[in-house]
Amino acid sequence: MVRRRIPRPSELAPLLRPAPVTLDRTAVRLARAASIGDLRLLARKRAPRAVFDYTDGAAEDEIGLRRARDAWASVEFTPSVLRDVSRIDTGTDVLGGRSALPFALAPTGFTRMMHTAGERAVAAVAARSGIPYTLSTMGSTTIEGVADAGAGGRRWFQLYLWRDRSFAHDLVARAAAAGYDTLMLTVDTPVGGNRRRDVRNGLSIPPALSLRTFLDGARHPRWWFDLLTTEPLAFESLASGGGSPFEVINRVFDPALSMDDVAWLRANWPGKLVVKGVQSVTDARRVADAGADGVLLSNHGGRQLDRAPVPVELIEPVVQELGDDAEVLVDTGIMHGGDVVAAVALGARAALVGRAYLYGLMAGGEAGVARAVEILRGEVERTMQLIGVTRVADLRPEHARLRSSISDAAHPNEGRAAGAESG
């Protein structure tokens, strides 16, 4: 039989610990976010639907993005126990410099549309965190403005080549003068991908006040207030006029991009050169032979060719092909620090994350970006400790593998049959 009593005040005191009162509701929401998925849910509430979908969506049926995330989810780690993991070094050398974490922040277009703090906020967080940030040609802050905001940090510049090459030549010169140490040429965008969410939402750049966006704006008054009371949204490096993202890309980007352009950049860019959008072993070898210092395995976050190869599945064969000829980087679908650890274990030098920090930006501006990096940092550290590795440099293929590859190897006939049925 249970005997009950009245607890003493001294026994209740340790249990009564109310949370500190704060008027900053955004800070409270961000502190409660335990994952990038939580930040995504906050972003969905804070941003208009067209803006959220521009970030969250992909091309056509979005199969490529789902496959990428499924591939990361299929990673199986192999822990090694009874290791002293009391101290963890998450730093790594990538493209001639040090990064405090084995990932960089990827280039994203028109970032001030997600939050008016935009690229400046992202660059500032990256500099404080000791990781590189990549400004996009389609960015909404100038090359020089990002250099100021990210002073002291590593800055990379992502380049699209336009039909009028003189603009690209000017951007390359400005990036070099502003202290960017790496140039990232994107090669998977000869035409714009068919992003159906943008079509259905009637998204234009800059956003237009249609009846639909006006009604949606009534549910997101803070976003519209910020948009209308800050400097106008524009592509700071791109005098393109308005239109949908698809129309802007097709009007400005050059579908005649070739290996000659890679050779020209190699001859004229003084820093590290990365080619972004490589999706085969053959192309990885071609760009490495043309002088690229790095190869970024990427299908543009699933936003260009739907059902394109899954980048994480290319890491091992590309690393085997290139050896020390070029560093291998990877992006697309990364939503957890464990994905970053797996990428390095499989052979990549580092990973790039894009949507993950954009969710944070939409959820809470600069503080949201900082929270996204904090979440990923914690996941990287914890994953390394749990698999028994104390340094990024010690990650090896024996620490991580893709379960789909294991299944196919164990049951080759079943794998082929499944593939035949699914088309």
Shape: globular
Q: Which strand order do you get reading across the main beta sheet?
A: 4-11-10-9-8-7-6-5
What is the overall pLDDT average?
90
- The end-to-end span amounts to 65 Å
CATH architecture label: Alpha-Beta Barrel
Task: Write down the CATH topology.
Answer: TIM Barrel
Family: Belongs to the FMN-dependent alpha-hydroxy acid dehydrogenase family.
EC number: 1.1.99.31
Organism: Pseudonocardia autotrophica
Cofactor: FMN
What can be said about this structure in brief?
The chain has a single domain, classed as Aldolase class I (TIM Barrel, Alpha-Beta Barrel), CATH 3.20.20.70.
Description of the molecule:
Residues 403-423 are annotated as: Disordered. This is (S)-mandelate dehydrogenase. It is an enzyme of class 1 (oxidoreductase). Its cofactor is FMN. Belongs to the FMN-dependent alpha-hydroxy acid dehydrogenase family. This protein is of the alpha/beta class and 423 residues long. It has a single domain, classed as TIM Barrel. The chain has helices at 9-12, 25-32, 36-46, 49-56, 63-73, 118-129, 143-149, 165-177, 196-201, 211-217, 221-229, 245-252, 259-268, 281-289, 311-322, 337-346, 355-387, 403-410, 412-422; strands at 75-77, 92-94, 97-99, 103-105, 133-136, 155-159, 182-186, 272-278, 294-297, 327-330, 350-353, 400-402. The strands form three sheets. The protein has an eight-stranded parallel beta sheet. A two-stranded antiparallel sheet has the order 1-12. The chain is globular, with a radius of gyration of 23 Å. Mean pLDDT is 90; it is low at 407-423.
